[in-house]
């Protein structure tokens, strides 16, 4: 009798811990905004960070559902760019980036909320960490109102926007699931920079603005942090105008590094010869959407 009861209690205990584990994975990652009727819509917002007025544009997915935890994707513009230019896109044949770096068009499942911040002086100088603080403020404000999967925040950008994504990978490794750095440099700093973050980057060997050796050094920080096996020699673009994608081996579970090298210049919309579309959007979307 006593034995039976003990058995029953321990079975119940196991059942309860299984159920709470399952609930934990289902519930724990939802932001406070889940279940709330949202006040945020797809438009420009203004906030104050360190006494400065800051703007960002929100894009909610079609048929936003307050109970669905969405991905949160930050898209940072280049030097001289703006949030509006990211939203509208610029001619990819003239060195521009597609709207939302081409990612919104690839989000066929309406799985993402996009955040498009606007830089002070059209850049991301991140003086005293003010742009990272801006990021923190946006995350807090957005997630209090909208339903976000807090494990699935992403950041991408070209040039200065890549620099800002890198700065976040350095300074906010726990808050950012993955970054995609398109022809970046270390222009927004790297506070911390000792923790793993899933890292995609692409760079041109003929980059005349931010040289490729800088891009390789940035990549190597996360090759090391993520525990990946370094390559014995540098990968070069294939002949005939084709980029080469390297997926690093040996990385810690959940912390991949993918590196794409091409022969082009400083360009967010580099294409492989014969291709009709730039490869950054597809590569970035593939990299981000491996995390669920
Ligand atoms: C949409 O979701 C399905 C099911 O999760 C997934 O297999 C597919 O890859 C997703 N499509 C895109 C474009 O992300
Ligand atoms: C690449 O750029 C970095 C940072 O601006 C600079 O320090 C370095 O000298 C450059 N290297 C080459 C090979 O041009």
From TrEMBL:
The catalytic activity, as recorded, is: feruloyl-polysaccharide + H2O = ferulate + polysaccharide
**Stated name of the protein:** feruloyl esterase
Q: Does the keyword Endoplasmic reticulum apply?
A: no
Q: What is its main location?
A: secreted
**Compartments, record wording:** Secreted
- Cellular component per GO? extracellular region
One GO term under biological process is: xylan catabolic process
Report keywords, A-Z.
Carbohydrate metabolism, Hydrolase, Polysaccharide degradation, Secreted, Signal, Xylan degradation
Q: Which InterPro entries match?
A: AB_hydrolase_fold (IPR029058), FaeB/C/D (IPR043595)
Q: Which GO terms describe its molecular function?
A: feruloyl esterase activity
- Quote the EC number: 3.1.1.73
Leader sequence range is 1-28
């Amino acid at each position: 009798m006593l034995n039976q009861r003990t058995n029953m209690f321990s079975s119940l205990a196991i059942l309860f811990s299984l159920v709470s584990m399952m609930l934990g994975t289902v519930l724990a990652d939802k932001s406070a905004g889940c279940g709330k009727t949202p006040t945020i819509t797809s438009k420009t917002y203004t906030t104050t960070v360190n006494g400065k007025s800051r703007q960002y544009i929100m894009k909610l997915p079609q048929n936003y559902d307050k109970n669905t935890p969405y991905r949160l994707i930050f898209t940072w513009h280049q030097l001289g760019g703006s949030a509006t230019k990211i939203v509208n896109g610029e001619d990819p044949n003239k060195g521009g980036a597609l709207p939302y770096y081409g990612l919104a068009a690839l989000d066929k499942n309406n799985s993402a909320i996009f955040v498009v911040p606007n830089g002070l002086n059209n850049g991301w100088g991140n003086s005293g960490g003010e742009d990272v603080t801006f990021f923190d403020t946006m995350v807090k404000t957005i997630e209090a109102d909208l339903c976000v999967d807090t494990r699935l925040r992403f950041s991408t950008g070209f040039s200065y926007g890549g620099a800002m994504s890198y700065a976040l990978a350095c300074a906010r490794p726990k808050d950012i699931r993955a970054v995609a750095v398109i022809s970046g440099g270390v222009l927004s700093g790297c506070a911390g920079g000792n923790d793993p973050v899933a890292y995609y980057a692409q760079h041109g060997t003929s980059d005349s603005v931010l040289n490729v050796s800088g891009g390789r050094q940035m990549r190597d920080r996360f090759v090391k942090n993520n525990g990946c096996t370094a390559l014995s020699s540098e990968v070069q673009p294939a002949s005939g105008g084709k980029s080469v994608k390297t997926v690093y081996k040996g990385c810690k579970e959940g912390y991949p590094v993918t590196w794409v090298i091409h022969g082009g210049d400083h360009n967010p919309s580099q294409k492989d010869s014969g291709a009709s579309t730039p490869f950054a959007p597809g590569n970035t979307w593939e990299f981000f959407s491996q995390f669920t």
